[in-house]
Each structure stands twice: as C-alpha cells, then as structure tokens.
Amino acid sequence: MLLLACSAVAWSCNEFDSSPKALVNVLLIDAPAQWDSVIVEIQGIELEFVPNGREGEIQKIFLPYEPGDKQVDVSQLVGGTALPVARSEMQLGQITGITLRLGPGNSLFLDEDRYPLELPGGKTDYFQALDIDLESGISYDLVLDFDLEKSIQVTSPNPLILDFNPTISAYSGIGRGDLTGTTSPTDLRPVIYAIRNVDSVSTHVNTSGNFLFRLDPGNYTIYIDPKDIEYSDTLFNVEIKTGKTTPLDRITLTKK
Fold first, then answer.
1. How many domains are there within the chain?
2. What tens digit of pLDDT does each residue of 54-103 get?
3. C-alpha to C-alpha distance for 17 and 158, rounded to whole angstroms
4. Cβ(80)–Cβ(211) below 8 Å
C-alpha cells in the first residue's frame, strides 16, 4: 500500500461565511499489482456525515470527480503520487463513512493487450467506515487506498480470465508516521510488505526505486520480495513513530 502524506493544518474559513467550517480533501492512492496498467472509472465519492448537535442524523454528501475524463490509470499512483478526487468545505461534525463510486469503464493492460474488468454484479459503490471529528479551521486529507493486487484475481491463466472485485481501505493520515526508502537495482520491481502482527500492507517502487508507506505507530517487519528468482529476499525490523518520517538507507538487493 503506497500512502500519500496526510495532515491536519490550519486553514482560513471563507470570509463571506462566518460559520465555523473544516476543509476536506479526498485523495486516491494505489497498492499496485503486477499489471502494466489498470484503468478505473471514478465517478466520485459520497461522505456519511453527522453535523454537530444533530446526533443520529446521517447526511449523505456526494462529491463528484470533476474532470471530463473519468478514466484514471490508478497503477501510476505510486511513489507518493496521489489523485485528488474531491474537495469541499464542510460544517463541523463527524464523518462516519466514505463510499467510492465507480463507473463501468474499467480495464487492464498487459503486453499491450486490453482486458475489460467487469464490476461484480454491476456493483458501483464501495463503502468504508470512518470516525473523523471535524474541527474549525482544520484541513483534513482523507485517503482511499485502492488495492489492485487484492482487487484483481486470475481465474484462468490461458486464456487470461480475470475476476475484478474492487478492494479499498480509507483513513485519515493524522496520527500516522511515514516510512520512506529506495531499492536498487532500479530495473527490478520488488514488492515491499510492512507486517505487524497478523496484518500487512504492501507497495511497489516507482521507476526510481522509491517507495513510501504511511503507517500507524508501532513495530513492523519489512519484507522485500524482489520478484526475480536470481535475487534474495530481504527482511528487517523498523519502528514507526507518530508524526515522524523514518528514512531507510538505500536497500541494495543482492543476487543469490
């Protein structure tokens, strides 16, 4: 899972409206898979929101993805790159959930061949629960992590038949810490796993060999799978601290 920095920073409310507000930015990132590219049609997001003083009243606020071309190559959202999906001023209250709404124009490219990706049962909405209290004058980044490796499964290798079941996670980056690193040789495309207890997240490197995680604080085992049988796996431990960036020394993958 490749994570973009998320923060809460001071933000000035609109001078023409004196009511207290918060600014919400929604970003899409990708936990990449083995494919050359994966195109996903993004329609927008829907927030579930409970205004202050109206406990039990859930409002649903749809924020469209504004560009005319809504087909996005999500496999390019690596190395700290994220897609701004929506942005909105909001009244104070609590965001209790977020839904990513997809369209039918989804496809995968491998060796210049295109393979359509059909949404299961025509399902377009993918929900994740959240628990974020909005405070006045604060800008919040909400991150949707589209895990392509879990979303696309091969049901037949020859001919290639794919099962597409979009898998996402959602979070605010507040209270997390960054882990950054670079692998070499840069012509390899390893998968990097951050493992904590029985849970793990993964990411790939970009063309420069760089990778980035945004993780909850704690101790992690980092496992690097070079995806090349000539090279050895790499394993080490690291501690993540709240609000801190932990840079790793360059990781040189060695041949067996």
1. 2
2. 887 899 999 999 998 999 998 888 767 789 999 999 999 999 999 999 99
3. 60
4. no
Q: Count other C-beta atoms under 10 Å from residue 244's C-beta.
A: 12
SS (H, E, C) 195-207: EECCEEEEEECCC
Q: How many Å apart are CA 253 and CA 48, to the nearest integer?
A: 45
- Residue with structure tokens 């882990």? 179
Q: Quickly tell me which residue has 């690291």 as its tokens.
A: 238
Read off the tokens for 111: 């060796």
156 and 226 assigned to the same domain:
no
Closest CA to 37 of 77, 62, 73: 73
CA distances from 166 to 21, 66, 110, 148, 197 (A): 33, 21, 19, 7, 25
- Please check whether residues 95 and 131 belong to one and the same domain: yes
Of the chain, the percentage scoring pLDDT greater than 90 comes to 52
pLDDT in tens, 11-51: 444 444 567 788 888 988 876 666 778 999 999 999 999 99
How far is Cα 144 from Cα 66, in angstroms, rounded to an integer? 17
Strands (E), 103-147: 107-110, 113-116, 125-134, 138-147
Distance in angstroms (rounded) separating the CA atoms of residues 43 and 62:
10
**Element containing residue 229 per DSSP (H, E):** none
Domain that holds residue 181: 176-256
Residues 136 and 67 in one domain: yes
108 class by beta-carbon count within 10 Å (0-12 exposed, 13-18 middle, 19+ buried): buried
